[in-house]
Amino acid sequence: xxxxxLDHIYCPDCSGxxxxxxxxxxxxxxxxxxxxxxxxxxxxxxxxxDGIVPSEKLVRGPDVGTPWRRANWRFLTEQLGELNxxxxxxxxxxxxxxxxxxxxxxxxxxxxVYPYTxxxxxxxxxxxxxxxxxxxDAVVLMNVAEHVYDTGALLNAISDLLKPGGSLIVAIPxxxxxxxxxxxxVRYTHHALERLGAEHGLETEMLxxxxxxxFFLEEGIGNLRNAILPIVQGSRRYIARALLSxxxxxxxxxxxVIGEGSSLPPAEVRSKAPTGYHVVYRKI
Length: 284
Hints:
Radius of gyration: 21 Å
Distance between the termini: 33 Å
CATH topology of the largest domain: Rossmann fold
CATH superfamily of the largest domain: Vaccinia Virus protein VP39
Largest sheet: 8 strands, mixed
CATH class of the largest domain: Alpha Beta
Strand content: 15-25%
Order of helices and strands: EEEEHEEEEHEHEHHEE
Number of domains: 3
């Protein structure tokens, strides 16, 4: 258990003070006597959803992963640099701590619906909220919102947790394949993201799309190679394999010539096909 965790959480039923009994292995409310199960000191306010497949621990960093992931790092690092040192931040859907190294100099709590060893609190914020209201300087939501069925309930909870003037920092994919099935539910346009924020007391301070057409070309080549090529029969398979090799060579050359994608406001680009969006909301 993080040493100061009890300073940030309380009983979601009555707002009473929680204490932790290491001998019994659970948390208990001093006011209403509610007990909260724990695993290695991590409170479990909600059970993990059915059918979830735990993510593997992968090496993450500013120069690791897809262009979209690297763009996420640049965006998050820039936004965290705008905060005062020592700001209190809640990383929602933190998983295996993909962005943990970006939070240096700040006080960070992590929450997820699954009890990963890297998590401080297990909780589905659309069901219950054990964090103190108006408590956080910033909340981070990196590639998480698409995995939440009731986005409105999540934004309501986050809005309650932010201090006035606090920021919600979001990365959310748009044209990205279905992943972490079956918990992958939505894709939003930038128009929808602005409206969602306004409906939950959040002003859109910054919104940019990440545009990388070569990424989609490579995704298409991968789909053809893995899903279509195996079912092509006879001589057509050899022809298709040769053409795919040519396409891959073209994609590699294009990447070297035009570079990776760009992060731009949607109004400044002709393409309406971003890989995803970066958004900064401000608590009104």
